[in-house]
Amino acid sequence: MSGQEHLTAEARRLHLEAVELRRAAAADLAAAASERSHSERARRDTADLERAIARREAKLKDLGEVDWLKREAEANAKLDEAKALLSKYDRDKHQALLALTARAA
Q1: pTM (2 d.p.)
Q2: Phi first, then psi: what are they for 2, rounded to 5°?
């Protein structure tokens, strides 16, 4: 192979390598653009969600949600107390039945 042919072969190889690098770079650029688009969309969605939450919180505050939550907590405490009393009543009733059964025997 002469010097000229060697240079031509080397130039072709470098050209093909450059074409492949250009394709890879274009693919990387497209992927980066897609990722950026997704990121921007996520950022917009998050901002929209935060605004919606702020509006909801303001509305709930205006409607007295804090008072409602307090009343709900008090009602749940009363319900727990009632459940405990019913459970004690059932235990006492069971103990009384055992005592009556023991006397009868």
Answers
A1: 0.44
A2: -80, 170
State pLDDT tens for residues 16-68.
999 999 999 999 999 999 999 999 999 999 999 999 999 988 888 788 777 88
Please, which residues have CB within 8 angstroms of residue 1's CB and are 6 or more apart in sequence?
A: 9
Domain ranges of the chain: 1-63, 64-105
What is the distance between the alpha carbons of residues 7 and 56, in angstroms, rounded to a whole number?
72
CA distance linking residue 27 with residue 33, whole number of Å: 10
Question: Region 72-80: what's the mean pLDDT?
Answer: 94
d(CA 79, CA 76): 5
d(Cα 94, Cα 79) in Å, to the nearest integer?
22
CA dihedral 72, 77, 83, 88 (to 10 degrees): -170
Q: What is the DSSP letter of 9?
A: H
Rg value, the chain, Cα: 39
